[in-house]
Amino acid sequence: MNHRQPSRATLLSVGFASVVVFLLAWEAACRTGVIDPLFLPPPSAVGERIVAMLSDGTLLSNVLASTRRVMTGFIAATVVAIPLGIVLGTSSYARAAFDPILSFLRPLPSMSWIPLSLLWFGISETQKYSIVFMGTFAPALVYVIEATRSVDPLLVRAAKNLGASNWQVMREVILPASLPQILSGMKIILGLSWTCVISAELVAAREGLGFLIMNGKEFFQTEVVVLGMVMISVTVLVTDIVFRAIERKVLRWQA
Amino acid sequence: MNLSRRKFLHTSAALSALPAAAAVGGLSLSGFARAADATTLQYGGSAWLGHYPAYLAMKSGALSAAGIDQQWQSFGTSSARMSAVLSGGIDIACTGIVSALALMARGSKHFSIVAVPESFGRVEGLFVRDGVNSLQDLKGKKLGVTFASSAHLLVLDLLGSAGLSNDVTVLNVPAPEIPGAIQSGQIDAAAAWTPQFNRIRAMTGMKLLADDTQFSLYKKYNVTPGPDVLIVRNAWAEKNADVVRKYLKVYFDACQTLRDKPDEAARTLIGLTGMSALDQIETIKGAEWYSLAQQTQLLKSPGNYVDGLQRLAEMLVTYKQIDKAPAVRQWINTSYL
């Protein structure tokens, strides 16, 4: 049997068609009364709201506010987690010392940090960055530890046998070998940062996609709620594309 | 029959206890029968003063005596409570009118306004530091308030009237965090309602600059920025019209207790609010508790109060909080009074 692989264009068309069919079915369900628009607005209402908020600039300012919070918290978490994770991944003593603390931190959802962060940082922007940081730091650290530990010990031993110093082993063997896994972990953490920013914006925020969703909820503007959700997905998609481009650049030697 | 000493004692004790058990059993059986006959309703409440009458009526046993088994469900915000009304989980609730207006603006016909429990104009207001003597002095300062609340509307109205809408930084601060934000100097002024209102008022260096009685609609219509209203879920109320009537009778008896015997009411309400007895009494006295007889006048349409609610809906549109003003009178139902 001759199985021909569908072309990329065909696959894209199928994906596009499925989105169109889904949106049409949703619109029809709202218009015919199958779904009460009070509970779920039709896509046309969401579209109208997007146009209105794009024209008055509020949509962009909310997206930018959330993106800034996500990137600040995410970068701070990775700056601390990557070196610390490499150290913990290569030293069993350090790991033994840090493991109990990590086990305590890892299951805590970002929401649980809100009361303490308010006491520590008040209602400032730092409080929002800290929520993203605390929500992503422990998972990021786990990814880095696992990536470092997954480096083939044979490579490390071979480098040492050839007379490489600890620093050389780290720079020439461990880092290049663990980097692809670290980067793919960070991609997941970036997605997680967006869930944290929603918690961060529940409290004392004046703008941002989380604020938009919560404010929409207060006034039963369900199309604003859906719009906020859509914008989070779109922004995550865009940041994911940017991250992939960076990944390709950084890991050029892997291509 | 050969009874052991232990068995004999057990049997004697059981027999001697029979008359008492029968008496108690008779009582509890009749109580059980009454509970079985009672109509269960789900009430959407919180520790806010608008829920005092429903809590008092429940705890005093007046609702049970009227054959109503009120199940108390707590909600953090009016919008969460109204969402539960929409989904059919709550039958009767007191809610801030802003949430009700937001739902009306979306065309929801799931509920009706059946009563107004009180006016709380003197337990919500704008606090400033001692050096601030007028709204103009707030220029360039930070003001904390919970967004989408009645206090937020008060702030928007006061700043708008003073021409300061763009000169004061208004920050969204959750109600429980407001006293802490003032103390730590993160905000210079705050608008809050009881119980945070009482806490801020007790702070040294803070003073009340304006309360709800300075709200632009208060003088003409006696309408505060977010008056409380008692609503019923229509689908439930239509099937239980007599229960709603009985409920309102008991509810306004509780309002009378709040008005005439605040000390007595406070003893029960402390269980709900956790306030000190003194604060509790003061909070009760800070509100004007309406009677059943006043309801027809208040909810008369056209009438001053309903007109005020209509102006309030239009004000929400001006401040871009809702898209269009609903015709409030369409949601008012006085047939249960």
A few lines on this structure:
The complex is a heterodimer of chains A (about 260) and B (about 325). In chain A, about 80% of the residues lie in helices and about 0% in strands.
What does this molecule look like?
The complex is a heterodimer of chains A (about 260) and B (about 325). Chain A has about 260 residues and is mostly helical. Chain A has ten helices and no strands. Chain A has one domain: MetI-like (MetI-like fold, Orthogonal Bundle). In chain A, helix 2 (about 45-55) crosses helix 10 (about 220-250), helix 3 (about 60-90) crosses helix 9 (about 210-220) and helix 6 (about 125-150) packs antiparallel against helix 8. The model of chain A has no long low-confidence stretch (mean pLDDT about 90). In chain B, helix 2 packs across helix 11. Chain B has helices spanning about 5-35, 50-60, 60-65, 80-85, 95-105, 150-160, 180-185, 195-200, 220, 235-240, 240-260, 260-275, 275-285, 290-300, 305-320, and strands at about 40-45, 70-75, 90-95, 110-115, 120, 125-130, 140-145, 170, 190-195, 205-210, 230-235, 290. Chain B is α/β, with parallel strands linked by helices and about 325 residues long. The interface between A and B is medium-sized, with 19 and 29 residues.
Topology:
The complex is a heterodimer of chains A (255) and B (337).
Chain A: H1 8-31, H2 43-55, H3 58-90, H4 92-105, H5 114-121, H6 125-149, H7 153-161, H8 166-200, H9 209-218, H10 222-250
Helix pairs in contact in A: 2-10, 3-4, 3-6, 3-8, 3-9, 5-6, 6-8, 7-8, 8-10, 9-10
Chain B: H1 5-37, E1 39-45, H2 52-59, H3 62-65, E2 68-74, H4 78-86, E3 92-96, H5 97-105, E4 111-115, E5 118-119, E6 124-129, E7 142-145, H6 150-161, E8 169-172, H7 178-183, E9 189-193, H8 196-201, E10 206-211, H9 218-221, E11 228-233, H10 234-239, H11 241-260, H12 262-273, H13 277-286, E12 288-289, H14 292-298, H15 304-318
Helix pairs in contact in B: 2-11, 2-12, 11-12, 12-13
